[in-house]
């Protein structure tokens, strides 16, 4: 039987200028089953609310958006995603409009992900959304400039991009994997 490692002490090391609305970092002390104490970082994003990753489908095709990701220093094709504000389905439908200018329907939460269980506290809901067959994403950047492009990708295009190392965002790969497992 597995033994839990209880948290024995917590110290907040960082809070963003919005009082922790977007990011907080904690230093937590845990007592391991061996009796040894260890300190770990814990990061809470979005105020601890459930985030969302949007798996928008138009038939078999999946919508990906292209964004500059400063933390890794490169452009990335990835599924639309965002911080939780209300409930996962409402958040997914809002993100789809914000990032691609698309209106979805038949939205449902299909999985929950722990993207980095070693340091990120917040969970992420995978929400599948149907989009009309004739729907095209907005041309050019989104209103806030966060998304440079959006387009539909076929399953063979996604597979090729993963094999080539061009599609490597953890949220996207985990959501696609969870969706595939649930459809099999």
- What share of the residues does DSSP label as strand, in percent? 35-45%
Mean pLDDT figure: 91
**What structural class do you assign from the helix and strand content?**
alpha+beta
Distance from N terminus to C terminus (CA atoms, Å) equals 31 Å
Identify the quaternary structure here: single chain
Largest sheet: 7 strands, mixed
- Quickly count the helices: 3
**What is the share of helical residues?**
10-25%
* Number of extended strands: 10
Order of helices and strands: EEEEEEEHEEEHH
Radius of gyration using CA atoms only: 18 Å
Stretches with pLDDT under 50, minimum 5 residues = none
Broad shape: globular
Explain what the structure shows:
This protein has 184 residues and is an alpha+beta fold. It has helices spanning 88-100, 155-163, 170-183, and strands spanning 7-15, 23-31, 37-45, 51-58, 61-69, 74-78, 81-82, 105-113, 124-130, 147-153. Strands 4, 5, 6, 7, 8, 9 and 10 form a 7-stranded mixed β-sheet that branches. The two termini are 31 Å apart.
